């Protein structure tokens, strides 16, 4: 069977694919048959087995139209659900429709954006210019699009390792070789982040050979969840006294757990004084700088030596799309550049492959290029601001429900952490029971399918005193260090969310809460 197909047949298949996507998007919001629209539904065991264990076909299974129909039935019919307005689970925004079309166009062109004199490379240069302007980052910095926030952090911290760890010598000899030679470079490097920092920071530190034993997770300020600067300074001094080499603070411009934004300007001052690299993980929250009322919270982000951003988190583009920005272009280029002989021509601009780990690179910029032009800076500010207002409204609704729901943690962005507290006869539920209850509610809610959110956990010492003291049997939170508090976490990064969706979420949480509490052998009143 030929791979190629006639143009008219391809056009017909394209229309079929567009119809499939359109039905999917419509189905996430409403059902023509009047039934409740499910955020996601469980994949039947038989289908799981079919998808994972089907025999490798020796011959074509069927014509392409039939394959597309089967794809709609077996794959599109059981989505992750993050396009739904009732999906509150993770910070994965639904793509703007223009971004979906852009991915199709980019796949049709199928360029490798490693570099070279073709339009896709110039589109990426243009998009990076726009990102710097949107985020207020220096125009002279270097940047590269990557798969998401995790890789953006790896790329940025690799540049940090090159700058702070021995440069070209480190690339040649590695940490072990430098350690054998002794001297300043032989001292272990230490990186600092907060206990609320994303797990990808630890992954990056491990992958880069620094080691998680040399990643210091600094406590946060109770209630704000910002990295505690007094604790940071104490730890830096202690590490220096132990013969270690503090090299980097990895701050957060919007944690995924609470939306906390560290005091970036003060952390920049610390790094400047201590001779350390200042990295900011803005994968989720950096885009909040576009909202006028929040700009002051991002003061100091422009001073970062590196900044990681994830456009598929809050800029409404399809997965995958992230961005690594490094203030010193030479440092980023020297961290990765390795040119084989067959790439030494066509050098009008440095190749993007010199600034990251990928050689063959997809045309990620296409969706971002079209999305930014479709929405503009002001459009993004409006929609992101709306997400934040919806999160505030969710918290208002939680507080208005009285004792049955309680806000556990909140930040300036669009994340709300809360818990269900049952009215319970002649006794108050113990913290252990409450924690178990939140996990059970999340499990029931996810199986129910009308909404989706996930549980999370907080050290009791990170919470405001009023929240932390509840169910502890004592108001002395200091004595409760190490105790964990479970909560339900709702993230709003969806331009489709309405107040009705918020009401549905809380109603389903309370419904699942009653079922779960009764199932635990308690009496609800």
UniProtKB/TrEMBL annotation:
It comes from the Eukaryota. Signal peptide: none annotated. Its cofactor is pyridoxal 5'-phosphate. InterPro entries: Aromatic_deC, PyrdxlP-dep_de-COase, PyrdxlP-dep_Trfase, PyrdxlP-dep_Trfase_major, PyrdxlP-dep_Trfase_small. GO terms for biological process: amino acid metabolic process; carboxylic acid metabolic process. One of its GO terms (molecular function) is transferase activity. Gene3D superfamilies: 3.90.1150.170, Aspartate Aminotransferase, domain 1, Type I PLP-dependent aspartate aminotransferase-like (Major domain). The modification N6-(pyridoxal phosphate)lysine is found at residue 313. Belongs to the group II decarboxylase family. This is PLP-dependent transferase. It comes from Gonapodya prolifera (strain JEL478) (Monoblepharis prolifera).
């Amino acid at each position: 069977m030929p791979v190629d197909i006639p143009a008219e047949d391809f056009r017909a298949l394209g229309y079929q694919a567009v119809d499939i996507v359109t039905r999917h998007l419509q189905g996430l919001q409403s059902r023509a048959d009047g039934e409740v629209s499910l955020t996601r539904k469980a994949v039947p065991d038989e289908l799981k087995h079919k998808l994972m264990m089907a025999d490798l076909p020796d011959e074509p299974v069927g014509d392409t139209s039939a394959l597309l129909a089967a794809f709609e039935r077996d794959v599109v019919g059981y989505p992750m659900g993050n396009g739904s307005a009732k999906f509150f689970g993770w910070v994965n925004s639904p793509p703007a429709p223009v971004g979906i079309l852009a991915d199709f166009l980019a796949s049709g062109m199928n360029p490798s954006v490693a570099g070279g004199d073709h339009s896709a490379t110039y589109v990426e240069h243009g998009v990076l210019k726009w990102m710097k302007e949107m985020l207020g980052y220096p125009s002279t910095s270097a940047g590269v699009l990557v798969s998401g926030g995790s890789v953006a952090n790896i790329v940025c911290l690799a540049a940090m390792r090159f700058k702070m760890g021995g440069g070209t010598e480190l690339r040649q000899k590695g940490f072990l070789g430098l350690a054998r030679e002794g001297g300043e470079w032989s001292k272990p490097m230490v990186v600092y982040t907060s206990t609320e920092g994303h797990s990808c920071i630890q992954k990056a530190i491990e992958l880069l050979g620094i080691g998680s034993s040399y990643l210091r997770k600094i406590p946060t300020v109770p209630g704000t969840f910002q990295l505690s600067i007094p604790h940071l300074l104490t730890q830096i001094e202690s590490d220096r006294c132990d013969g270690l080499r503090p090299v980097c603070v990895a701050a957060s411009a919007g944690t995924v757990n609470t939306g906390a934004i560290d005091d970036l300007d003060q952390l920049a001052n610390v790094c400047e004084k201590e001779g350390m690299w200042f990295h900011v993980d803005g994968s989720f929250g950096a885009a909040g700088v576009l909202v006028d009322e929040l700009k002051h919270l991002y003061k100091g982000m422009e001073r970062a030596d590196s900044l990681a951003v994830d456009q598929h988190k809050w800029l409404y583009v399809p997965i995958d799309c992230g961005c690594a920005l490094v203030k010193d272009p030479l440092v980023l280029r020297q961290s990765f550049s390795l040119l084989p002989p067959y790439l030494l021509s066509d050098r009008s601009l440095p190749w993007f492959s010199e600034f990251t780990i990928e050689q063959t690179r997809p045309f990620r910029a296409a969706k971002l290029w079209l999305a930014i032009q479709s929405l503009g800076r002001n459009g993004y500010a409006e929609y992101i601001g709306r997400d934040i207002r919806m999160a505030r409204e969710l918290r208002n609704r939680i507080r208005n429900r009285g004792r049955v729901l309680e806000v556990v943690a909140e930040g300036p962005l669009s994340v709300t952490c809360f818990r269900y507290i049952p009215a319970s006869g002649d006794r108050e539920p113990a913290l252990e029971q409450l924690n178990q209850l939140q996990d059970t509610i999340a499990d029931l809610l996810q199986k129910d399918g009308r909404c989706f959110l996930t549980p999370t956990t907080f050290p009791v010492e990170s919470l405001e005193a009023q929240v932390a003291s509840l169910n502890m049997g004592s108001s002395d939170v200091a004595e409760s260090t190490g105790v964990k508090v479970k909560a339900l976490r709702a993230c709003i990064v969806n331009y489709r969310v309405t107040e009705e969706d918020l009401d549905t979420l809380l109603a389903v949480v309370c419904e699942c809460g009653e079922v779960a509490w009764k199932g635990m052998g308690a009496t609800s009143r």
